[in-house]
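Researcher: Please predict.
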Amino acid sequence: MIALPGVMDSAAVSCADVLIEDTAAWTTALGGHRGVPLDFEEVQDVLFHAWETAAELLPAVFGDPALRHWTAPPTTELRLSTERHDDTGAAPALPSVVDFSALGPSSRGPRQEMAVTITAEPSLRRAERQDLMRRALVHMARAFGHLHAEVGLA
């Protein structure tokens, strides 16, 4: 999700949401991949493309973002969450759908949500966006107990 503050208290909020509701269909869509849990590299890829969509494609509806005069810095939130599981209504822990082993052990218990907010210009070069996202995800991982997370691992 990206919030694009506009002029005179107006704002544009753009959100790209990727929901995996049918894990069998997800596995088929991935071409035989083992499905879930997703490895952290796959999670980064999904978040990167969602951020690119929310920051560049969707705001274009409001005109060229490069021509906007911001009243506040644009912010982007990258969020991982589980919401429900089957008919039980209970949300499973994130490690049941995301393999966090690349980030090292967590000093905290399993959780249903992790998020990080990034303050940056919406239109970034691909390499800049990827570098910024990796550093933000390491910051998020450390904040949620993965103390050994490093940019090279995330």
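Model: Residues 40-57 form the longest helix (18 residues).
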